[in-house]
Amino acid sequence: MILYDYPSGPNPRRVRIYLAEKGLHVPTETVDILARRNRQPDFLEKNPTGGIPVLELDDGSCISESVAICRYFEELHPDPPLFGTGAKEKAIVDMWLRRVELNLMVPIGMVWVHGHPLTAKLIQQIPEAAAQNRVRTAMGYKLLNDQLARHAFIAGDTYTVADAVALATVDFGAGLVGVPPDAALTHLDRWHQAVTARPSAKA
Ligand SMILES: N[C@@H](CCC(=O)N[C@@H](CS)C(=O)NCC(=O)O)C(=O)O
């Protein structure tokens, strides 16, 4: 088994944080995204979208999409449960995973693609798309802040995979992309400090 990884990418970091929380060790290989190694035909055989991370199993089959990779490990190693237990909790974790993806990761990704000098060579940037998605990013942060006003973690009162995904997303937005949460979002800040203090955040 091998996990194709890229150290500064938010999507592979989701998986690394998750694995650290589970206490699992998986061999990794760095794929040079900047050299477009992930866009070569042999890599596109493993994942036709070209995205990292990809988990290659010993039988040669490949699983891509960061959350799907985490789910695979959850089935094999259910303890500690990070996708919830029981119908209701599992659905709530899934709900927050979707909310973080659609309301925060997507707009941050759009600001990255349409508003950052590092991506300017890759596509024809549309400045209005970056501006609109800065607003959507702020709304996504507020969505999390409102939830964290009532709960310790993203999907409720225990740490779940939604926290791993949200931490990687917030750090990407606040760091490389340059769209940090507003300082007035104190509940999000309290959560961020708490999850950053966990050893898994170093992954
Ligand atoms: N939805 C995918 C996104 C994968 C993705 O876009 N990964 C980025 C790194 S964070 C990547 O490979 N970017 C380079 C490229 O697409 O060429 C996931 O959750 O794994």
TrEMBL record:
Database matches in PROSITE patterns: GST_CTER (PS50405), GST_NTER (PS50404)
One annotated GO molecular function: transferase activity
Domain GST N-terminal: 1-81
UniProt-listed Gene3D superfamilies: 1.20.1050.10, Glutaredoxin
Keywords of this entry: Transferase
Keyword Secreted in record: no
Transferase recorded as keyword: yes
Domain GST C-terminal residues, every copy: 86-203
InterPro entries: Glutathione-S-Trfase_C-like, Glutathione-S-Trfase_C_sf, Glutathione_S-Trfase, Glutathione_S-Trfase_N, GST_C, Gtt2-like_N, Thioredoxin-like_sf
Name assigned to this protein: Glutathione S-transferase
Organism encoding this protein: Hyphomonas johnsonii MHS-2
